[in-house]
Design brief:
Number of helices: 9
CATH architecture of the largest domain: Orthogonal Bundle
Shape: elongated
Pfam family, one: Retrotrans_gag
InterPro entries: Retrotrans_gag_dom
CATH topology of the largest domain: Non-ribosomal Peptide Synthetase Peptidyl Carrier Protein, Chain A
Largest sheet: 2 strands, antiparallel
Number of domains: 3
Order of helices and strands: HHHHHHHHHEE
Distance between the termini: 86 Å
CATH superfamily of the largest domain: Retrovirus capsid C-terminal domain
Strand content: 5-15%
Structural class: mainly alpha
Strand order of the largest sheet: 1-2
Number of strands: 2
CATH class of the largest domain: Mainly Alpha
Length: 226
């Protein structure tokens, strides 16, 4: 049976240890790795740096003598020490939508902050309150504050809808502005030619508007307009 996927070495700068273990477990399921081979599979994949760290953490024991769950927990305690809840909630309360950040991007950041806050059953309510407080659009914020039974899901629905409408409106305005600019350029390309009037004793010059393609003074050309 051909191997499905690939389990790269663990790089702390690229992903969390928890995310890596989730991928490792999926890799083992997809490739029918027997329980007795899970430790060897993981230790062979994590890379020299992580393996060396684990050796130091479990001395005088050997990494291969630990269970899969023990290895996961030992390295999790090192890479993901338990956060201080009060500090994480402080960061969560300061999370606001940044300039040029979309609603989706803001929500992703908000959920990332909330993941360390241990909100439990009040997670959705906390996300809703912070989302309404931190969203940049004042129009959207007023709309959300006007709904008595607002849920986090409903807040996202309204925000996405208003963001889309605002983006479409701006695009339409750009199109209209572009059309106006083109019209003004066309107008500017017309110029006035002057023809001496021989029918009036005052010998005045009469202004005429003429297409640039028509020779000046050619009063018989179809481009002449009064």
């Amino acid at each position: 049976m051909a191997q499905i996927g690939r389990l790269d070495e663990y790089k702390p700068e690229n992903e969390s240890w928890s995310a890596y273990i989730e991928r490792a477990e999926l890799f083992m399921i997809a490739n029918d790795v027997d329980d007795t081979k899970q430790v060897a599979t993981l230790l062979s994949a994590v890379g020299a740096s992580t393996y060396g760290l684990l050796r130091n953490l479990v001395q005088p024991a050997k990494p291969k003598d630990k269970t899969f769950e023990e290895i996961v927990n030992i390295l999790k305690a090192h890479f993901e020490p338990k956060p201080l809840i009060i500090a994480e909630r402080f960061r969560f309360q300061r999370c606001v939508q940044k300039p040029h950040e979309t609603v989706s991007q803001y929500v992703a950041e908000l959920k990332q902050c909330a993941s360390k806050c241990d909100f439990g059953a009040s997670l959705d309510e906390s996300l809703r309150d912070r989302f309404v407080s931190g969203i940049r659009s004042e129009a959207c914020q007023r709309r959300l504050l006007s709904e008595d039974t607002l849920t986090f899901a409903r807040a996202l629905e309204v925000a996405h809808s208003m963001e889309t409408a605002d983006r479409d409106t701006q695009q339409l305005r750009k199109t209209e502005d572009s059309a106006t600019t083109v019209h003004k350029i066309c107008e500017a390309e017309w110029y006035y030619a002057y023809q001496k009037c021989t029918k009036t004793p005052s010998n005045k010059w009469i202004g005429r508007k003429i297409c640039p393609d028509v020779q000046e003074g050619d009063t018989s050309a179809p481009g002449w307009t009064s």
